[in-house]
Amino acid sequence: MANFTPQPSCADAHEANSLSVAQATQRITDLIAPIKGSETRSLRDALDYVLHDEIISPINVPPHNNSAMDGYAIHGSAIQSDKFTLTQIGIAFAGQPFAGNIQQGECIRIMTGAMMPEDCDTVIMQEHVEVNDVLITIHGQHQHGQNVRMAGEDLRTGEHVLDEGHKITPADLGLIASLGIAELNVKRKVRVAFFSTGDELRSIGDELEAGQIYDSNRYTLHGMLSHLNVDIIDMGVVPDQKQALREALQQASKQADMVLTTGGVSVGDADYVKEILEELGQVSFWKIAMKPGRPLAFGIINNALFFGLPGNPVSVMVTFYQFALPALQQLSGQDAPMQQRLQVNCVSPIRKRAGRFEFQRGILFQNDQGITQVKTTGEQGSGILRSMSIANCFILLEEQCDGIAANTTVTVQPFSGLI
Ligand code: AMP
Ligand code: MG
Question: How many CB atoms lie within 10 A of CB 130?
């Protein structure tokens, strides 16, 4: 009979050499240097890329004073109390300025966005006038300078618009287009290689034999990575054999900036990932006091960051979102996005033992009064992927929390804020 050495298992609530979630996050952050390399892309094709250079406005936006209303452009000095009449001598459309001069007692018809004539500085809304052929009678109280958008009111020439490290959003595409900029210098995409490990795994389309299961992790990872602007290298399934793992990890780490694997990081007899990581690269840590997702090997192989994610499908998603995603964002040179957290009332009681930080799956919903609350998805096993499908948030429970009663305020992390 072999000696029995107690090994850490998922059943332990607390374990001395596990890092806290915050410590693990800090270790990862400290190790990452953003990728180098940039490329020029046309504006539309720069969506979701990270700016390599800051953007400075080359022009005033708007480029000229223009009307904020459909109405009549006048000089403010013409305004008199209550009621006065001017003669309309022309018309200005957006894109078709009025060319002539406007003398005392005169005005022009003007449309929203049309350039203000030099002689005018005030616009009267058409709803406040009475029109009698070319005679325009203006009623009511009006202020000198009203209803005019000034040149450079949005952005001035030379003004700083967006920082290096900013990730381009749909709003930015419009903003940059308004500056007349056609091309951007952006950081290159991060390359991510991943594979599943496990002798029991079969691909969809294959018949399952006794003891086999379909590989789902590779599909979840494909989905999560596809929402990011990264190059994806899917390396398939690698069996639980040291040599096969060695070769796959070498190949992956030479092609990619980040390598992700699932499974084989625990303490089973066929879990070789951590051992091979130690052999080929450096292990930074491999245990975190969290649930799900305690065995998570993090380190470096060649020049690639390596995350050996756990095998259980929910653990894969939790550890990806909590650690690999922020690491990818940092690696891409992107400014750290704001962490979205909400404090809401949890209507379900939650059972938990103190000792590990838990990421329970929750559903944010609106009650009858329209107030946002959260409930758990129920059974929280790390193999129950359906809990992720029906969830729309994580309920974050601190290490020391030992369960909560119904109607307690909890912190949640909405999935919608994750990417
Ligand atoms: P492991 O960490 O390799 O022991 O895997 C933990 C559990 O997750 C086992 O029940 C595995 O069968 C399961 N598992 C591992 N990889 C996958 C995968 N790619 N798809 C679905 N389940 C998996
Ligand atoms: Mg395995």
Answer: 11
Please state the rounded mean pLDDT for residues 114-141. 97
- Asked if CATH classification 3.40.50.10070 holds for the domain at 342-417, the reply, yes or no, is no
CB 249 within 8 A of CB 276: yes
| Amino acid in the structure at residue 44 | R
pTM: 0.91
Substitution site in 202, 262, 388 for ligand 1 pocket (most atoms within 8 Å of beta carbon)? 262
- Ligand 2 centroid from CA 311, angstroms: 6
Centre of ligand 1 to C-alpha 22, Å, is 26
80 backbone dihedrals φ, ψ, rounded to 5°: -125, 160
Average pLDDT, the chain: 95
220 lines ligand 1 (CB under 6 A): no
Predicted confidence (pLDDT) per residue in 216-249, tens digit = 999 999 999 999 999 999 999 999 999 999 999 9
Ligand nearest the Cα of residue 308 is: 1
**Nearest Cα residue to atom 14 of ligand 1:** 311
Q: What are phi and psi of 86, to 5 degrees?
A: -125, 165
Q: Supply the CATH classification number for the domain 21-37+188-331.
A: 3.40.980.10
Query: For residue 8, what pLDDT is reported?
Result: 44
